[in-house]
Design a protein that fits this description.
It contains 7 helices and 6 strands, in the order βαββααααβββαα. The longest helix is centred in the middle third of the chain and has 49 residues, at 145-193. The strands form 2 sheets. A 3-stranded antiparallel sheet has the order 1-3-2, with no helix packed on it. Strands 4-5-6 form a 3-stranded antiparallel sheet, with no helix packed on it. It starts with 9 loop residues before the first strand and ends in a 13-residue tail after the last helix. The radius of gyration is 41 Å and the shape is rod-shaped. It has helices at residues 34-37, 84-103, 112-135, 145-193, 200-204, 239-264, 271-296; strands spanning 10-18, 51-65, 68-81, 214-216, 221-224, 227-230.
Length: 309
């Protein structure tokens, strides 16, 4: 049996009639109705669980040996393996496992436990499927069609795990390097635009000063932190300074919001994940298209069907 195309393989099972005691000069076998009509198979006469009967072929062979020539009548029954069982038990689980491994590309790159579970689980599942599929096959030294399919699926699953490792590695580096650089640039910009506000640089480091308690009393007197002051509103030139200082907290609040916004950029989607969301499914689809078009639509080739035995 040639199993290179398993489970889309075709085999020729021979049925032989002959004599090993009488030579051609003593007994000669011939087809009474010709080779085409001498062997007939009833429509409902063959029911095989794993094979479909594609047809048969009759032939006459002459075997030569040291004792003489012998006539052997041979009929080859062409059998094609049914693929339904293997699609349900092997192919569909492999395809679903590969799709499941690609779901991790849509998770947040900071979700390390979830993506690690996806990667390790799918790799172990592919390993189990590969072992179970090989147990139902004869021990052959070459790779079958199913072996190539499972090898490629295993490569896709393992590549998804390696992709997450790369994304996680560059994410940690960008948090320490790009985050510090972005904060320094933002702080420099704020200090440059607000040189008249000496406390702005401290606000960029997320330290807010407590507001000064200012309460007004009768006769134009003000109480500031327990001390009472009398102000001449009409003539005091410091009124404009107080007004400017009162507007400063609102501006500082806006500055703090801008500083906090730069932190949100660290949770953005990785460029590697964005590329993997497109490349991995497209490559897997192309592989399936080529694989099934190659093995399913091609004409079955029966090897060594008419070789004398």
């Amino acid at each position: 049996m040639q199993l290179e195309d398993f489970p889309m393989d075709v085999h020729a099972c021979p049925l032989k009639f002959g004599s090993y005691a009488y030579t051609k000069s003593e007994v000669s076998y011939v087809w009474m109705n010709g080779k085409e009509r001498s062997v007939e198979v009833a429509k409902d006469g063959s029911r095989l669980n794993q094979y479909d009967l594609m047809g048969h072929e009759a032939d006459t062979q002459l075997i030569k040996s040291s004792t003489g020539d012998y006539v052997v009548m041979t009929t080859h029954f062409h059998l094609k393996r049914k693929i339904g069982y293997f699609v349900i038990q092997t192919y569909l689980p492999c395809i679903m496992t590969v799709i499941l491994s690609q779901v991790s590309f849509w998770l947040n790159r900071e979700s390390v436990p979830a993506r690690t579970v996806f990667g390790v689980t799918t790799v172990l599942t592919m390993t189990t499927l590969s072992i179970s599929a090989r147990n139902s096959l004869p021990k052959v030294a070459y790779a079958t069609a199913m072996d190539w399919f499972m090898a490629v699926c295993y490569a896709f699953v393992f590549s998804a795990l390696i992709e997450f490792a790369a994304v996680n590695y560059f994410t940690k580096r960008s948090w320490a390097w790009d985050g510090k650089k972005a904060m320094q640039a933002q702080e420099y910009k704020i200090i440059k635009n607000n040189r008249k506000l000496p406390h702005v640089s401290k606000v960029c480091r997320f330290k807010r000063k407590e507001p000064v308690a200012l309460s007004k009393k009768a006769n134009n007197t003000y109480n500031i932190v327990g001390t009472t002051y009398t102000l001449n509103i009409a003539k005091d030139p410091g009124l404009a300074t107080i007004a400017k200082s009162a507007a400063a907290p609102a501006k500082v609040a806006r500055v703090e919001e801008k500083v906090l916004e730069c932190k949100k950029t660290y949770n953005s989607v990785s460029k590697v994940d964005k590329l993997s969301r497109i490349v991995f499914p497209v490559l897997f689809f192309i592989f399936n298209l080529v694989y099934w078009a190659t093995y399913v639509n091609r004409e079955p080739v029966i090897k060594d069907a008419n070789r004398p035995h």
